[in-house]
Amino acid sequence: MKGRDFLQAILAAALVSSAAAQTQVNRKYTETPLAPFGPEVYESAIVSPDARHVAYIAGDEGGQRVLLDGRPQKRYDGVAALEFSPVGSRLAYAARQGDGWQVVVDGREQGPYQRVGPPVFSPDGRRMAHVAMLADSKRAVVTDGRPGPAYDLISAGLIEFSPDGEHVAYGAVKNDQCYLVVDGEERGPFEDLGTYTGYRFSPDGSRLAFVIAEGGQVHVMLDGAKQPPYQDVGDLVYGSDGRRAAYAALGEGGWRVVVDGAEQKPYEAIGEGTLRFSPDGGKLAYAANSGGKWCVVLDGQEGEKYDGVAEMTFSPGGELLAYTAKTGAAEMVVVGGREGRIFDRIGGGTLVFSPDGRRMAYVARVGDVSFVVADGVRKPRYDLIGYVTFTPDGRHYVYAAIRGEKTFTVVDELEAAHHYDAIWLPPDTSLPFDNDERFHYLAVKEAKMFLVEEEVQ
Fold first, then answer.
1. CA 198/CA 279 separation, integer angstroms
2. What is the pLDDT of residues 210-234, one digit of tens each?
3. Other C-beta atoms lying within 10 Å of the C-beta of residue 375
4. How far apart are the C-alpha atoms of 209 and 266, rounded to whole Å?
5. CA distance 284 to 86
């Protein structure tokens, strides 16, 4: 991640704006210095999911070491694969000393091994696993510091924890046969495992789905039962309570969604990454292609047809579905079946509802300027915008913006007077709130990283 590229996941390239400066407001804020942060560390730097810590690799003639919030860790010959836990601020990484590799987690070493894969934390952050190559070139998954059974290969290096962290699954190969290993116990053998779909635990961890190959076809294995054969399987999702399961499958007549064991209408394609249940698990939506046109299918009912459909998201209560629709070269946001204004482009991943579901905002572009559209109203223009969100009480919308060489936050239409060279947050996130009136972020200025805590007034 480099300087002005901090929002590249939101819009592909920086834009040039001729807009005049908007009204500024001096909001109450504090800056806590964390670490030196020159351009030389940008490439390796990562930010913790809670946006309060930063880690990066620094090198010198004696080797490399990790700096966590500016505090140097032990020096090694080489360091790679930095990873923060999803919850909390645990840090793990791979480190080489001589010919041996180890994984360092919370400053404690696991190993050495011939080689190690990147660390994988459980969603709750309590547990950690990684692949290791043993002295005999066999592979094992090391979970919480303890190596599991040895195999010829660990399938794609893919390790999956259940959401509660209680279970762990991975694919393994020995004697040219594939196994799914769950909590150290083998299931199989199988001809092959579908690593695209992966190994999916339900939200409560009680159910497990994965894909196997058999006789030139593939089957979903759900709760240990083999489902009907297909040519291919795509996305697989559960409802929020884990009781419902759906997946995209390719069979005779094309792609279709199979929900709770029942096939829906076939289409030429199902949009990758669009299959989803509403937060309450009561509705199922996806994008489908037929005759070169795309539509949203909601509970089996087709919506309007467009040249493209993307960025689907439900409101928190599941009442409304919003998505980006493309018509010709232009794009619009459709909410609850109602089309919004047409723009040149809608920012990828920027559609956001307020927590109560009553308001919505997103980033749009016309020509070479970007702006937030909140409650259907176009707001001030900037070079680049990202990290859009609402306050927990839904009263205000907040985002980060770039004008020229300066980056700052905006609350509603009021710009902060304190500016930075860049604002850094984890990928695919928004400005994090601590309560209804306070949010925080990491920011860079004068080659230093700061934790900035700001109040909405």
1. 22
2. 999 999 999 999 999 999 999 999 9
3. 11
4. 22
5. 27
